[in-house]
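Field guide to reading this record: the first block holds the primary sequence, the second block holds the structure written as C-alpha cells, and the final block holds curator observations. Each block starts with its own label. This record concerns Metallo-beta-lactamase domain-containing protein, catalogued under organism Exophiala sideris.

BLOCK 1 — SEQUENCE
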Amino acid sequence: MAIIYPTVSPLRCGFLSPPAKKFLADAREGEKLTMPSLSFLIVHPSTGSKIVFDLSIRKDLTKYHPGLQKHLATRHPLSSENDVKSALSLGHMDASEVDYVVLSHCHWDHIGTPSDFTSATFIAGHNTGKMLRNEMGPEFYNPFFEADLLPADRTVELPAVPSSRTGEVFDEKRGWYWQSLSPVQNVVDMFNDCTVYLVDSPGHLPGHLNLLVRISANKWVYLAADACHHVRILKGETDFGTWKDDQGQTVTIHKDLGAAYKTLNIMRKLQKEGLNGVPVQIVLAHDGEWEEKNLQHFFPNHL
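BLOCK 2 — STRUCTURE
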C-alpha cells in the first residue's frame, strides 16, 4: 500500500519592514528589509489533522498591546490585510477546522489572532507561558507580551529537552517523547509515523520550535521560523546582525547566540546532505525571495 504523505501549503499573510541591521551584519545604515511573515498549513492524511505553523501578523493591529504601537510604526511598510484566517478561506477552510496550531515562538509577528482557532490545540515550546507572563527574569522581560495569549485549557507546552536521556514519554495521550533524528538532536514525532516532527531549535528565544515534514518519498520540508532571518546568512554570505542596546551592550536578534549558531549549522547540514539521504528544503519565515518563487504553491495548493 502506497504511503500518502502530508502536504505543506504556505499561506498568504502579512509583511513588515524592519531595519536590516537587526538581521544582517553587512547591512547599510538606514537600509530596510521588506519581508513576509510566513505561516503554513500542514494536512496529515492518515488522521485528517490540520496543523497551522505560526500565525503571522494580527489582522487588526490595534488589538496588539497599546505599547507596541510605537514599535509597529518602525516596521512600515507593514501589511496585515491578509492573515491566516483569510488565507485559509481561499481554500474554503475555516479557522475552526484547524486541529493544531504550533507556535514557533511568541514574538508579535508570529502570534496572529489565536482566538480565531476555536477548536485547535496550541503547541508551544518550553517556558512559553512563563515568558508571556514575564516570569523569566529581566533578560527576557517584554512589556508587550500578552499573558492570556493562549487558551490555558487547550495549550500543550513542551517540556525542556532532557539533559542526559531521551525516550521518556511526557505526554501519555499522544505518546510524545523527545528523540534524536540525526543530525537534529531533539524532535517529537507528532503522529508517531515519522512524517511530522516538532523540532527543538534553540537560539532565538527559549523554546523556539521548528517543524520538519516529510512531503514525499524524496523530500522533506524544514520550516525554520526565526532560526535564521535571511537566506544570505543560511548560505554563509554574511553573519547575524548586531547593534548596541540601551546599556551599550552589543546584542543580536537571538537571545542565545551560541545555540543559534548550532541550530543554523544543523540547518546547513540538512540542506547540504539531506536527512537519511532524502533532500531537505529549508524555508525561512521571512524569506521574500522564496515567497516570490513559490507563489504557485500557496494554499489552496501545496509544495
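BLOCK 3 — OBSERVATIONS
Helices lie at 69-73, 84-89, 108-111, 128-132, 231-234, 257-273, 288-293.
The first strand starts at residue 7 and ends at 11.
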